[in-house]
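User: Fold this; tokens only.

Assistant: Input:
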Amino acid sequence: MVRFILFAAFIAIVAFAIVVLLGTWRTVTQPKAGKDDAIMPVKFQRITYVLLIVLMFGVTTGWLGGL
């Protein structure tokens, strides 16, 4: 059973690495256009980034999601 869990974790890590490499390759090879093609405005991107940091800090300290 432990071998199965380790194998599943290995497959997940390999899949994650492939996704990261493909995303990096796509970003590097894609020419930068002159206009901004962002899905959300920069203001909302910054707000969601700050909220994500607060969420991660809250979970790691036990402030959010702790039992």
